[in-house]
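seq as requested:
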Amino acid sequence: MDELFESVLDELREGGESPDQASLYYLSNLDAGEMERVRDVWSDLSEESRLELVTQLVKMAEADFTLNFGAVFRIAMDDESAEVREVAIEGLWEDQDVRLVPQLASRLAKDESARVRAAAAKSLGRFILLGELEKIRPKPRRVAYEALVKAYQAGDEEPEVQRRALESLAYVCSETVIASIREAYGSPQEKLRVSAVFAMGRSADDRWSQQVKQELFSVNPEMRYEAARACGELQVSQAVAMLEELTEDTDTEVQEAAIWALGQIGGDRAREILERYYHGSDEALRSAAEAALEEFKFLHGDLEELFADPTEETFW
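struct tokens:
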């Protein structure tokens, strides 16, 4: 292992093309000493090489959950290139180490790049969720919360950063967050309104049911998508007929969001709609319906003959 790890470092030092994927596996699960060895090499790499490397590691980690390139991503978080910092933060999306919280909060408050600040705001959301579930101590949750509230409320902050901060705050049921969602929903900025609807769904607070329903037929497909998802997350049973209409939307992603939402909401009518798409000819919608039926089964109880022969007279 030591020799193979050193050979990867040698390849990096030599420059040129990034090491092949098989070699990059040896950058996973580094100990403290190995992390320092990578740090020593890091500053000698070109910006192009650093970006190529972190991008490849993110793709590998997404494809194989056993890989852990967190040590490399932590080094890259302090890179002089904003693009490298942004990709590194994205690479840490599943990392639950609370020591990341002050680093992410600092990036959110001080990084010169709005894209990096937005990535940090989004990344802090998982620590808010962990805090709400009482899986981490109160202090890191508080640090994350305060950093996000400050970013959202900053009058001179970029809208993209504000909307990601709001989305991360949505897990918290507090008057501050409720007021922020309401404020964002009333904003003239369409992107911020879309994030408000996203936050409504994530909040799991049925006070927003009416607002998300009324956005199902927005002229903006991004808004229709988020509204459909929010109806599913809030399990708005009164939206089933409207979601059925959206399964025929001109936007494929909206169609799939509506199908997903029906699986979350449940009920006989939702089941019938999903059955129809499961036996339909559109492969993408059939796949979406199959996944939604599995969710239906998990959330709402067993379904008899879930994958029955479609040529039979009855499905259920």
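The chain has 18 helices and no strands.
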